Amino acid sequence: MNEMRMAEIMTTYLTNFAKYGNPNGIKNNDDGYWEPLSIGNTTKFLKINLPKPVMQDNLHQGRVKAWQQILKEDKLYN
């Protein structure tokens, strides 16, 4: 049953995006609000869990920090 519920959630998000340009649709989605990215926080993501998807921060945060350090040390970017 979990697979069916997950398919329903994703189908709703995808259908809403196709119809309205917004995965949340035109009314509040009971399955959880999918927040857009912002310039200030590009590591937000929708964690697709059951019973309800939730927004979380710091997607691949360890990777981001590693690349920031590499770029900081690279003479081309300083």
TrEMBL record:
It comes from the Eukaryota. It holds the Pfam family COesterase. InterPro entries: AB_hydrolase_fold, CarbesteraseB, CM06B1-like. Residues 2-67 form the Carboxylesterase type B domain. This is Carboxylesterase type B domain-containing protein.
